[in-house]
Give the backbone structure.
Amino acid sequence: MKSSGVWRLLARTLFLTTAILIAAAGTANAQPASLMAKVVVIGVPGLTWNDVKASPELTALVNQSNVGSITVKTAGPHTCPVDGWLTISAGTRAWGSVPDEPCGELPAVTDGKVAGWQTYVDRQADHHTGAPIGRLGQTGYPICGFGPGAAIALARTDGSVTNWQPELDQARLASPACGDAIIDAGALPLREGRAEARKKVADLVADARAAGGWVLLVGVSQELANSHQEPLVAMQLPPDTGPRWLTSDSTRRPGLIQLTDITATILKGRTAAEVDPAGAAKAGPLDGNEIHSTGDVHTDADAVIENRLDTNQRFEQPRPMLVAVSMTILAAELLALAWFWFTRSPRSRRTFVFTLLTQGGFFIAVFLSTATVWWRWPAPGFSLYCVVLGISAILAAVSQLVLKRYAFLGITLAAYLILLVDGVLGTPLQFGSMFTDGPVIGGRFYGFGNSTFATLAVAALVTAGWAAQKLIDKSRVQAAVAVLVIGGAAIVVDGRPGWGTDFGGIIALTPAVLLMAWLTWRGSISVRALIGVGVAGVLAVSAVAFLDYLRPPDQRSHFGTFVARLLDGDVSDVLIRKLDMAVQFFTGPAGWAMLVGVVLAMLATVLPDRVPFPAYRTFYPSLPMIRPTLLALSACGLVGMLLNDAGVALPAIMTGFSLPLLVAHLLASEQPATVSPESHLVQES
């Protein structure tokens, strides 16, 4: 077989690489504190840990506080002050600002009502947020508000505000009329006057503590575009059992809470008011959980502040470095392809195969890089860049040296085992990695994201195909069982609450594994059997979701929460919002390029004889398990694309992992011209 067919296949592969890899860019034992009778929330738009470091007054509070960072992502693309306060009002992510416009002034309170309140109500409906703004104010519990942001947080569903004053009144704060309180300390100025504003914040904390209560100082928003990409300050005074790390069950991460946790903490387990944006139907559940503390006692304020700044680097650097690493690998592949195209030498072939394997190794390196603690190194961004490239190249070199033409197997097997272990351990390698930027965008704080699932799906199905190939000559039943065991382990780890906690993932992977097992057992599949496989997959996923729903509400994962919304008739906004997210990929040429590439890749698994590459046409029938494996990959990608909010990005990421490995195997498997195609097939068999 000539190499011309291979390089033409590679040219198409490399055409897709940019869009595919950028699509990936586009993923302690808690001891609850006993809350005091009064919770006083002091919200400060723009309060960062650099502010704490620069302010002696705020630094002095660190060793007196449980501390952490708060992610302030709301429903819209920006988190302006109005977005943050409306999110506290609803207890779920709300949308208050206008896209592509600077953050405006907070609305005034006129005649006891927030001006323009209906505009914000309509905005929730327009963007399908499902956020019942006014829920906190509708509870009927005596919560005092001070400042314009507090008026928004405590407005009732019609925009009316009671028990509110434009400025802090310390006597009223200390009175029984304030069961809890929210104070808007005002946004920190971007330049001049910031030092004075920081001192004012420290003074407000002192006043609130003097009034008695459980003071929660948090950044609630930023004035800058895309500012939610930097977690802000969270402090709680006084600490319950010595200064520790803040956390909540919604993040399950020491030192990290989210904006919606504030509402749950104010309510302290009380039933939230049953309202929707229009003030009529039953509201969905709160997105947050009560804030508490965890971990060891800290006594060094400077070390705590540096820890928080390092953590910010951990969350801020992965996204830009993902693009940089992807472009570097792409450039290396293009240079290696040019060398191979012009010389056809054995060395150029090995180099080109190495670059393709490096792209496969990249899908493991994004996780292993976390173990190096790169964010504590000098120049964290550049350190991450070097670490990911280095691990990718090492994995490629070792696999190529040890397994030669089967180097792809070393990479997929490593990805499979690493992700299974990481999932069981609570995904420590994924937190803050290039494929899991949940703290930055307010997405996943634990479990498997879309990019992680795509990597696991490819690794599991390819590994299952290899194991089944080893057994199929002995027994098709044993081979099918191997597929079920290997694929089933991936499904369990991906879907189990507290491990992968990935509802969308098991919806896509379960039917793919069942299809692969059937094809392994029977060799073909009828329409009736195909329908049965689909029904079995739906039943399995539904059973997992329903069992999770039976758990107490504060212990449910995404599965049980979705079932609860479905039974309450409150799922339409969620589905529409996820559909909007999937469709957004087609607002630019990259999304359409991904779609074309994914469709071509899927068609190649169904119609191999129509593929214009001799290398692939020879490879497809050479082993019994190639067809079931490729069809299972296509099925998983197709279901994931249709039912997941990642849309076309999910199968594109799967293609970005699997296709370079396939092409590397085809190139590495080519025999010298003196060897006939027939003898090649015999060796492959």
Summary: The radius of gyration is 27 Å. The first strand starts at residue 30 and ends at 31. The chain is about 55% helix and 5% strand.
